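Lab channel / #folding
Pinned by the channel admin:
"Please post every new chain as: sequence first, then the structure tokens as a reply. Keep commentary short and put observations after the output so the thread stays searchable."

First post following the new format, from NK:
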Amino acid sequence: MRDFKYRDLATAELRDWGWELKDFRSEFLRPIAERFLFSNIRSTTFAIMPAWIAFEASREQLWFDHATIKCGETIDPDLTKYHSAKITPEIEAEFNRLVFEHREIDKEKWRELLREIGITYIEGQLARSKATASSIDALFCAIILDSWTAFECLVSDLWIATMNAEDGTLASRLESSGELTKPNKTPETIKHNIKTSYGSYCVETRRVSFQRLENIKRLYTATFGKNTKRLFDDIGGGYIHALHAFRNVFLHQAGQADETFLEQVQRFPEFRGISTGDKLLPDGDQVTKMRDASVQLGRQLIQAADNVLSPP
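Reply from TO:
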């Protein structure tokens, strides 16, 4: 039986974020960092959503059933009559009493109940229900896509802002690096000035691309130095490469592994058993590692830009 490891994802908090926005010396980088953090908090919240709904439904049904029986009414097992169940003022009053009573429970106890009731219920359904299994697979896929999109937006916004603000040193290095292509736009249609908005100019004229991980890695290495390449390869065990590979297959190959995917994930032992044409079925632990690699790498790239623009 497949182990979805949903609990690993549902209980995982954002790892190693490790800073407040005020920690960045370059103030104009703070909104970029804040948007990136918001996107990842959204994905983390989305991950717990099935368990939270299961928990709330179980909790409220328990209280409603208790109130119904306590008030002398019966519970009809006919599902077609569920929405027409009789709710007397007495039942409503008892239900509300339970709601107010349980508001006194502290947050840690609620988290424990969420794990014991909500997550446990989803795990049980994964073993019994194909519909639940398909839904959780869709959730895993969505988090992978959202994590990559957040990272891709970050590296684009961060690079543009950095290059627009720096004194020309990085631009000179890039011009001699061989990583920039020729402008792909006629001069009379260009809106940005290369002297005052170098980053925006390069993006507008398509001299740079942020659509593939290798392009991003080469551009950031050429911009911030050779040590930057190590960040892509080492942070989170290099799982940013797995994130990019899974994202591409989910979007372009309907979730079926191709030769390119196999080459990109060869460094990871856990994926070496996948063959061409296999349906990709990552588990919650692997999805968590992909998301966390994006978060950790993104944080380090922001820090690298901040160190260049506002040296310690």
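NK: The two ends are 53 Å apart (CA to CA).
TO: also worth noting, The mean pLDDT is 93.
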